[in-house]
Specification:
The protein is of the alpha+beta class. The protein contains one helix and seven strands, in the order H-E-E-E-E-E-E-E. About 20% of the residues lie in helices and about 45% in strands.
Length: about 160
């Protein structure tokens, strides 16, 4: 067997120094790639598609379907502060004699003082009415007035952020 030569201590120190430099370069290279990928993600984020899951929606039944006789009343109040826009659907399924239905969408900043947001055109027959709502307060409710005999109707809202 041949003799193994020993490296002088100076050569060993140079080899170790080169190894440490190589590891430092690898570490810097990895950090550079990580930085590049982070910048790429930040640049791409505004043009990535928006999915339906990104828009939370909530369906609120303000008034369930039922016969309401000549009277005025309002629904319960609902917190809609987390939403930016919505649709309110009025579905009249029966109208008794010569009756009319007046719907007013009311909003409130504090669930105490109520303001008229939108007045829906007077309804005097069966059918569906849709109203888009935006820029509403923290709370919303439906105020209604039935004149004449009776109306059977429901009011549902769908809100999204």
């Amino acid at each position: 067997m041949g003799k193994r030569s020993k490296l002088p201590s100076e050569a060993f120190s140079l080899v170790e120094a080169a190894r440490h430099i190589g590891q430092g370069v690898k570490s810097q290279w990895r950090a550079g790639w990580a930085c590049f990928l982070a910048i790429l993600v930040c640049l791409m984020a505004p043009i990535l598609p928006v999915y339906a899951a990104d828009h939370a929606t909530r369906t609120i039944t303000f008034l369930s379907s039922g016969l309401k006789t000549a009277a005025t009343s309002q629904s319960s109040a609902f917190d809609v502060s987390a939403y930016a826009e919505g649709q309110v659907f009025v579905d009249v399924t029966a109208e008794g004699s010569v009756s009319t239905l007046d719907i007013t969408i009311q909003t409130s900043p504090d669930n105490v003082t109520w303001y008229t947001h939108t007045t829906v055109a007077q309804i005097s027959a069966t059918g569906q009415t849709r109203v888009a709502v935006t820029n509403f307060g923290n709370y919303m409710r439906i105020y209604y007035a039935v004149t004449g005999t009776s109306m059977t109707f429901s009011v549902v809202g769908v809100f999204k952020n």
